[in-house]
Amino acid sequence: MKAKLHIIKAGTYASIQDKGRTNYAKFGIPKSGFVDKKTAIKINKLLGNKANEAVLEWIQIGPEIKFSQATQIVISDTTTKTTLNGHSIRAREIIQVPEKSTLRLANNPSVVYSYLAIKGGFKTEKILKSKSMQKGITPSHFLNEGDVIQYASLKKKNAFIKQPNFDLPPMLKDTLARAIDTYPGPEYELLDDIQKTTLEQYFTLSNQRNRMGMQVTEQIPNQLASMLSVPVIPGTVQLTPYGKLIVLGKDCQTTGGYPRVLQLPEKALRQLYQTAHNVRFRFNIIDYS
User: Fold this and answer.
1) Chain mean position to CA 234
2) Domain chopping of the chain, boundaries
3) Which of 16, 43, 127, 256 has its CA 20 to 30 A from that of 73?
């Protein structure tokens, strides 16, 4: 039986995502998919879902949603203000959701991307073998107030909410510096020694960030020549003529004309996506040899 999830408040950049679209780059179609694949897979497995089943993804401020029928959910991160029918609930454990329940996903300043998995996954349309919402591919690329999403309901029952047996501690703000492992990009050797050294200094992410990519606040002056468009993938780090570093994300284009000075592997890209604006980081450049 199909049940309906109603979006009461949209939250920040909430969308449905799964593993994304593969083998379509030659048509100029981004891969999309989970920003934090490890977390999405983990909460799917807790519910007994397939690892790559579609989940709800959002940035810090989650949506407010209402369930028409009983189900089970797992949330990747919560705060004391995350409630189901007014009761606080925990992260990374199975939550029984009664019919006609309201879930409020509170603002979580300590985690950038959070997830909600539902038993059996969301029953949205697959386009090019994926349910991932993407601009230009699906009718909309973010969820809006009033949207309705279908899911598979469980047998009707008076599910209860398991109360935490102690108060949830306040979330601590993540301010620790971190190292992001990366590899030299195809145009890395075009940099001089000073630029290479600068590339290993500490950086911070600007507020210019979304699923398409992230900009770095600090700049690297250069006089690199213009180049023809070449293939790029999520994790490619481009250096613009104005000195800006741009880390391409899950919804990035498939070609670009800026020098590709670094390439982040998937684990490093996930780590950088989950890095807050005020957290300093540096690129730990690994020699291929």
Assistant:
1) 12
2) 2-152, 178-285
3) 127
Q: What does CATH list as the number for 178-285?
A: 2.40.100.10
Percentage of the residues of the chain whose pLDDT score is greater than 90 = 76
3-state secondary structure of 86: coil
Q: Is residue 164 predicted with pLDDT exceeding 50?
A: no
For the chain, the distance separating the N- and C-terminal CA atoms, rounded to the nearest angstrom, is 55
The number of beta carbons lying within 10 Å of the beta carbon of residue 126 is 11
pTM: 0.87
Query: From residue 47, how far is each of 10, 44, 95, 97, 107 by CA, in Å?
Result: 24, 5, 10, 13, 24
What stretch of H or E contains 103? Answer: strand 101-104
Residue 103 and residue 67 in contact, taking contact as beta carbons nearer than 8 Å: yes
CA 54 – CA 49 distance, rounded (Å): 9
Average pLDDT estimate for 3-32 = 93
Strand ranges across the sheet with 64-67:
87-88, 83-84, 101-104, 64-67, 2-9, 148-152
Q: Which residue spans within 153-280 are E strands per DSSP?
A: 178-184, 202-203, 205-210, 213-216, 230-231, 236-239, 245-248, 255-256, 260-263
Q: Decide: helix, strand or coil at residue 77.
A: coil
